[in-house]
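Lab notes, practical 5.
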Amino acid sequence: MRAGIVAVVMSLGLAVTLIACGGEPEAADPSSAPSAATVVTAIKGANGTSATAGGYEIGDVRLPAKAGEPGTVSFTITKDGEPVGDYIEEQTKDLHLYVVRDDLEVFRHLHPSQGDAGAWSGEVTLPAGGTYRVVVEFAAKTPDGKGEQAMLGASAAVAGPTEVEVPGSDDGTVVAALEETPKPGKDQEVGVLVSDPAGKPVNLGTYLGTYAHVTAFSRETGEVIHLHPLGGPENGPDGTRLGIHVKPPKAGDYVFFVQVRVDGMIHTLRLPVTV
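Output from the prediction step:
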């Protein structure tokens, strides 16, 4: 969930408190309540599959020209043709950026910087060529002092060989697994188990203000699902358990990317899941 934002999902008539995944440094108390909340309306249909939604648009998307070389990712965010320059901090960042190859075999979670109003850029090295989705997630301030939340996506091509070593759920230091398969269309809690290769609990720190950052992508539609940790970690015989809130929109194949900080290092684990 996300810190400091109460999202009012108008189409569902549902109020949800979003708790931030706080900054990359360790947070002293990720469960502490923010001093003030801002009401944010979630834009219907802004699930990362389209470059436009609710008047918002991601444009001028550029990625490094070649794979395997450091380069720049850049884009603009506009609302009704005007640059969007005022944002509400979510998960300690004004904007979250996901660069994901269409086959979901390459994933990058970045936090670019804003230059001119609505113009964003950051550094990235992509390991292989192919067609990538550039997905942005943000909450923009509105003139009434509230906000609107959107997730937009656009494609860009990167030259170079497409072969890549696909990350798995075990990176040799940390292993991640789901306790059970989520059910489509249902709000539910599912446990994420994080362990060392021997199945023992790990020293789980915070990343972006909570104990895990979990994002899922639909293979069929490209829809992005941001999953929300519930409470703190619990050590058990099978490792360290984190409960997450999840609601897959429909049955199908998804890839979950679980990011955790263990012994001070960020680990990204990839979990294909059929819902």
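Observations recorded by the TA: Residues 1-36 have pLDDT under 50 and may be disordered. The two ends are 22 Å apart (CA to CA).
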